[in-house]
Amino acid sequence: MDSRSTRQITQQYLTHCRDHRFIDTAFGGVKRRNRVVDVNELSIPVNTSNCFTGMFRFPEAYQEHCQRIGSVSKCPPVECYSDFVWFDIDSSDPAEALGWGRELVGRLKEQGDEIVRNLDIYFSGCKGFHIGIPSQLFGLGPSSDLPAKIGRIAKKLAEGITIDTCIYQRNQLWRVPNTKHRDSGLFKTKLTLEEFTAWSIDQIREKAQKAAGVPHVAYPERGDLNPHPFLLRIAESVDLAATRLPNDSGNQVVRNKPGWIGEGLKNLSDGNRNSTFAKITGRLHRDGWSPEDIAALLVPHASQVGFPPDELQTVVDGICDRYPSTTRFPVSAPIYIGNQEIRSETAIPFAQLLSQADKEIPWLVESLFPTEGIAIIGGAPGIGKSWLVLDLTLTCAAGGKWFNQFQTLQGPVLYVDEESYPPLLGKRCRQLVAGGKPEPIEDIHFLVGQGVSFTDSRRLSILEVNLERYRPKLVICDSLIRFHSAEENSASEMKRVFESVKELVREHHCFFVFADHNRKPGENATSSQHALRGSSEKSAAVDCQLSVSQAGDVLKVEHSKSRYGREIPAFTFKLREPRLGKIQLVYAGDVREARVSEQVQRAVPVILDCLSERDLVARKDIVSKGQGGGVGEKLIDNGLKHLVNEGKIERVDKRPDGGRGSKSAFYRLADLSETGEQS
């Protein structure tokens, strides 16, 4: 048991954001709140049940406001800070809550031991658990909208897990560790990671029968934590209120700056704040903005006019819950540098257009994919599209030749997958590397199962963060249907999907490749270009289209569309497994060669059967036997040429028996023993 006093513990833990040291307290029940104190002077009674402190710390202005009006409510927006991103997991069955909590911890452990080593885990003292991740691991600092941001982070990390989402308010009270729950008689008790993951609920409740130390506010064990890359990306992906991003020239690019909001707030007063923000929310919601995006966009405006973020969140949630959105897509707002819009609408003069005509097309994959644009690789489910795009990923990252035919431009690759899971992708990569592919670890990053969507700006921000971080030349998305909620047969809705993709291409100068499904056989696909399932807008929107289909024992790739050059001839490849644990995608020639090869194989058995009967056989006798079996003269000749080239038969030109007349072609089986070959 910790022998330090409550005050000693508190003073030693306050190492981060020292100016934000004032918290609300409620000792003996929530009705005894509105007693804001300096954390350094906090003294918590030892034998009192139902003791709470505020979840967030504030600057001194928070205490002054409470002393002036007697309540923490209606405090003007001020910065606040929380030492943890908390998850409150409750259930009428505590064992069920324990299972949910373990699932959350398991997800975090997949991202690295550093996260779970620094978790704060408590049995709440009644029917659930409190799990805290230190805010420093997210790179979080004080801000006026921190409660809403922490709420978005928690919802994202706990997706599919039942958590109490009502706790993310700036005046939220939080039960003090080592104090008793009045109803259950059990203490809020800290658990080690081992206890939480291995003990039964009965063992945990037994530990909570008595206090494990003096009451104190929860604090991180270490004050020098650096942001964890995974958690930092999560925080950045939900930080939509931070609308300023540096561009290549160092200027500030401001997005989503619709001037009508400022106009609407000009005549704001205490009597019309709620109704004004409700009207603005309604307009944004009708245009397809999500509740999270609306709140993030309006927080800075609300702060300027003294409208508390938690009240704004209530308005936004109320409007969005009451009135369903009429469109699934966000509007495209102008982009600004300072006060100047940077999206140029100036027409290009004819002479300037002609001056660009002689510029060479820069290729990412020679003759197939340019360095910027969009492609779709279509095919039936299970035909091998995922192997194809994974092989392309490894090749481009290394700068090799795809299928030993098409030179690639070496560069980073971002592989976004909403169908597979990391162990399966890892296994496939290992098989391709074992089959001969290079292993460019530094130049490939995988974004798997993160719910990226081109029709949800909040989910799209996950992808944007990774594009900004890794700056890939190639982005693989497997498969298209998983990346939007649009109606696939609607041209207008699919057009908006690809507008979002094109915006990312222009901004990040990269090339997107989508795997997609073809129509089922018999669904009126008149050509490979029109074989894609759904609207023809898919084919119209992309710069390149490949179609994969089965052709005997090989897979055929047809180049159905190329905006920047002529389509290359269709080619074939084989998906080979030379031995267990190795996978190779092997070029098998263009389709014309494959057709000839397939026909030649019909002649080979006839020729070999004929030559097995005697030493030298005249060409005319072989042709005669072939025609008797339905194989024409031309095929026999092609088959003879093929077998000679393969070294399996020999050609001898000589005169017929008796020595008269011109020389004729005779054939015999090759003597393989002389070449060292074995049959």
Explain this structure.
The protein is α+β, with helices and mostly antiparallel strands. Helix content is 35%, strand content 19%. The chain contains 22 helices and 29 strands. The strands form eight sheets. A nine-stranded mixed β-sheet has the order 20-19-21-22-16-23-24-25-26, with helices on both faces. It has a four-stranded antiparallel β-sheet with strand order 5-7-6-9. Helix 11 (291-304) runs antiparallel to helix 12. The longest helix has 21 residues, at 591-611. It is elongated. The chain starts with 5 loop residues before the first helix and ends with a helix.
* Annotation field: number of helices: 22
Low-confidence stretches: 240-258, 326-345, 672-679
If you average the pLDDT, what whole number results? Answer: 81
- Identify the overall geometry: elongated
**In angstroms, what separates the terminal alpha carbons?**
80 Å
Largest beta sheet: strand ordering: 20-19-21-22-16-23-24-25-26
Major sheet description: 9 strands, mixed
Q: Approximately how much beta-strand content do the residues carry?
A: 15-25%
Number of strands: 29
* Portion in helices: 25-40%
Secondary-structure-based class equals: alpha+beta
CA gyration radius, whole angstroms: 35 Å
Can I get a quick summary?
35% of the residues lie in helices and 19% in strands. It is an alpha+beta fold and 679 residues long.
